[in-house]
Amino acid sequence: MSDSRFDKGLKLLNEIDGEAGQNVIDSLQDICPDLARYTIEFPFGDIYARTELDLKSREIATVAALTALGHCAPQLKVHLNAALNVGCSEQALKEVILQMAVYAGFPAALNGMFAFKEVLAERSA
């Protein structure tokens, strides 16, 4: 069925993350394909598909949360790229990460900023 949570989620995942999202899905196929499916269905098929926030706002919230957690560098990098893909500016993302120093502490903000530095370097290469 083309209107399934999975199909809707996969379409959004590809729009937001492009190849990076598909790489995560592919990397789970040999160990836990169910986790790959859940990663598409719930976050993207259910939450990202809601209309109350646009994709840019959702990615800003996601970058803030992953930065605040402080230990999610791989996922943060994916969502920093996604935020840039959906129209967030580099300066706005720097401000989001900087804001997290107030609420999550300097170590989390430093880790976030270093992750962003890597993303920007990879994108310019």
From TrEMBL:
GO terms for molecular function: peroxiredoxin activity. Residues 33-118 form the Carboxymuconolactone decarboxylase-like domain. InterPro entries: 4CMD/NDH-1_regulator (IPR052512), AhpD-like (IPR029032), CMD-like (IPR003779). It comes from the Bacteria. This is 4-carboxymuconolactone decarboxylase. It comes from Marinomonas pollencensis. The lineage of its organism: Bacteria, Pseudomonadati, Pseudomonadota, Gammaproteobacteria, Oceanospirillales.
